[in-house]
Amino acid sequence: MVSFKELGLVNTREMFAKAINGGYAIPAFNFNNMEQLQAIIKASAETKSPVILQVSKGARNYANQTLLRYMAEGAVEYAKELGWENPQIVLHLDHGDSFELCKSCVDFGFSSVMIDASSLPYEENIALTRKVVEYAHQFDVTVEAELGVLAGVEDEVQSEVSHYTKPEEVIDFATRTGCDSLAISIGTSHGAYKFKPEQCTRDPKTGKLVPPPLAFDVLDAIMEKLPGFPIVLHGSSSVPQEYVDMINEHGGKLPDAVGIPEEQLRKAAKSAVCKINIDSDSRLAFTAAVRKVLDEKPGEFDPRKFCGPAREEMERLYKHKIIEVLGSDGTA
Ligand code: G3H
Ligand code: 13P
Ligand code: ZN
């Protein structure tokens, strides 16, 4: 058993309270490798933004959970080396799908876990979430739960349609589970293809797809039921057109990729939405930079020559999100 406190990490409790009061949101960036982690920490340290490092089940399988744990511990030291005196870094399990997985992360030094039982019937979601909360809270680890279903792929759970969170359920759910934050469904979804072309309109000037707006009325109704309660948005990548174009220009094929417009995320960040999850945009930044180098220099075979530019591109992206979208800079 390792406590997250020994690793220099923090849980989300104080961070979320400050974010709601301050009208900004904390970035939750997924990481799977060293370059992503370096870029996240550098961007957070240089902007003095609190940050949530997210590890999915897939990331654990890809990178090994022991290694990821020590990488997070190293991240705290790296942040200090970069001049961030009191780093506010959370190590969070993204989309935990069982009690055993959540327990293993709590025991292993994570400071926050998500139990995603949103695909289960309501009462089963409550029972499983409650079980995780009871265990995690013994060690001061905070718990994110989910109510409502996002369209697209939620790790291995696939949902074709989005089922918005029902505002009439949130008080009962939050009270009976004791969860610390709630992920809701208001029209975001995972991946780089968040909407089908038939759900969008086309910008007559650019010919690009314009997605339907998020259901802010549902968010407002939830906030009315649970004033000041921390709300989480998954599936919040914007799928920047410049990366899609760069990928397509250098041998990739991403037709009609579409994300959440940043102005909508800016609006959400000012509300009780205090955690915004971004993974796909970082994948796009990485892939765009790698493709460009390999396309322009076909003789290159030193991974540092393409992973280095990919790391710089991700750092630019993270800083942009922190400063221009979430507004969390200067708060840690
Ligand atoms: O919500 C899903 C995250 O983007 C993690 O994706 O399961 O492919 O690591 P992954
Ligand atoms: P994106 O696929 O929009 O980046 O969402 C990531 C996410 O929600 C991780 O849990
Ligand atoms: Zn997610």
Q: How much beta, percentage-wise?
A: 15-25%
**Percentage of residues assigned to helices:** 40-55%
Helix run count: 12
How far apart are the first and last residues' alpha carbons, in Å? 28 Å
> Which ligands accompany this protein?
glyceraldehyde-3-phosphate, 1,3-dihydroxyacetonephosphate, zinc ion
CATH C-level label: Alpha Beta
Question: How would you characterize this protein structure?
Answer:
By secondary structure, the protein is α/β, with parallel strands linked by helices. It has helices at 13-22, 34-47, 57-63, 65-81, 99-107, 122-137, 170-177, 216-225, 241-249, 262-269, 280-296, 303-326; strands at 26-30, 51-56, 89-96, 112-115, 142-147, 152-154, 157-159, 181-184, 201-202, 209-210, 231-233, 273-278. It has a single domain (4-326), classed as Aldolase class I (TIM Barrel, Alpha-Beta Barrel). 45% of the residues lie in helices and 16% in strands. The protein has an eight-stranded parallel β-barrel with strand order 1-2-3-4-5-8-11-12, surrounded by ten helices. Helix 9 (241-249) packs parallel to helix 11 (280-296) and helix 11 (280-296) packs antiparallel against helix 12. The structure holds glyceraldehyde-3-phosphate, 1,3-dihydroxyacetonephosphate (13P) and zinc ion (ZN). Residues 95, 190, 234-235, 277 line the site of zinc ion.
Write the layout of secondary structure elements.
Elements: H1 13-22, E1 26-30, H2 34-47, E2 51-56, H3 57-63, H4 65-81, E3 89-96, H5 99-107, E4 112-115, H6 122-137, E5 142-147, E6 152-154, E7 157-159, H7 170-177, E8 181-184, E9 201-202, E10 209-210, H8 216-225, E11 231-233, H9 241-249, H10 262-269, E12 273-278, H11 280-296, H12 303-326
Parallel strand pairs: 1-2, 1-12, 2-3, 3-4, 4-5, 5-8, 8-11, 11-12
Antiparallel strand pairs: 6-7, 9-10
Helix pairs in contact: 2-4, 2-12, 5-6, 9-11, 11-12
